[in-house]
TrEMBL record:
InterPro entries: RpnA (IPR010106). Pfam families: PDDEXK_2 (PF12784). It comes from the Bacteria. This is Rpn family recombination-promoting nuclease/putative transposase.
Length: 298
């Protein structure tokens, strides 16, 4: 599709291509730094970072691998995994914990080593809502650390999981206050904007809207983005259909059982659609959480 035929002016960060293009490339490093600093509200400031290899292998060749959307290290050594997750996964939290073990293990040193670790942060930007938290409509920003259950104090502060539930963020442009809120607004609404909102006057957004302009794309970039948009829309359609079927069956056999069946059917449908769009098995595995061996059998 030619650039001038695109209905949207800006790319969608929720697509695989859009997210990695805006936040996972050295030329747009300023955007990732700006987003992460806004996330910490000034309590922790990142001045620079380096992108690391997003494909992580296990200790042995036969071990399962992990593929991160964005994996980077700050100038002071902290590791960041930043992921856009569009589809609910039954064991999504398990997957987050598992992924965090890769940057932990790679810090091991040969010979004498005192086990000192640099901090590891996993940031999940979620295009869905946790089931157990769905009734807390305004609570969308989760920050999780290891805690002593009796004292309610942080036991270990070098391992942090941050989850942002985009569907719960409903503020309009006129209601935006903090820089963090402005970033969340952009992540959720960028592709629907026809022009830069007046509320987004910070310098970092100059770069964001420049980078996100579809009119600046090369033909190759446009093809890659178009494929990513198709995959994203297939996912959304499959999720909506499966959830509806799951809810309907839940009236008879219990809502939870119906939803779980819906999610399994949802994954299979997503795999089929993504395969038909020519996506690679490792990309499909990242979206669905299914092992590559299972994807090959569908």
């Amino acid at each position: 599709m030619p650039v001038n035929e695109w209905k949207e002016r800006y790319i969608d960060p929720r697509t695989d291509f859009g997210f990695k293009y805006l936040f996972g490339t050295p030329m747009n490093k300023e955007l990732l730094i700006g987003f992460l600093n806004a996330l910490f509200h000034g309590t922790y400031i990142i001045k620079d970072l380096t992108y690391l290899n997003g494909e992580q292998l296990g200790i042995r060749k036969e071990d399962r691998r992990a593929i991160f959307d964005v994996y980077c290290e700050t100038e002071s050594g902290e590791k960041f995994i930043v992921e856009m997750q569009n589809v609910f996964q039954q064991f999504f939290k398990d997957r987050s914990v598992y992924y965090s073990t890769f940057p932990i293990r790679e810090q091991a040193k040969r010979g004498d080593w005192d086990y000192r670790l640099e901090s590891v942060y996993t940031v999940g930007i979620l295009n869905f809502v946790f089931d157990e938290d769905k009734n807390s409509k305004d609570y969308f920003h989760h920050e999780v650390k290891l805690m002593d259950v009796n004292t309610k104090k942080v036991f270990y502060d070098k391992l942090t999981f941050i989850y942002l539930e985009l569907p719960k963020f409903t503020k309009t442009e006129d209601e935006l206050g903090t820089l963090f809120e402005k970033w969340i607004f952009v992540l959720k609404n960028l592709s629907r904007l026809l022009e830069r909102p007046a509320a987004l006057q910070e310098r970092v957004f100059n770069r964001l809207f420049e980078a996100a302009s579809i009119a600046r794309f090369t033909p190759k970039q446009l093809r890659e983005y178009e494929d990513s948009v198709k995959a994203y829309r297939d996912i959304v359609n499959a999720v909506n259909t499966a959830r509806k079927e799951g809810h309907e069956e839940g009236h008879e056999k219990g809502l939870k059982e119906g939803l779980e069946k819906g999610r399994e059917e949802e994954k299979i449908e997503i795999v089929r659609k993504m395969k038909s769009d020519g996506l690679l098995d490792d990309v499909i595995s990242k979206y669905t959480g299914l092992p590559i061996e299972e994807i090959e059998r569908i």
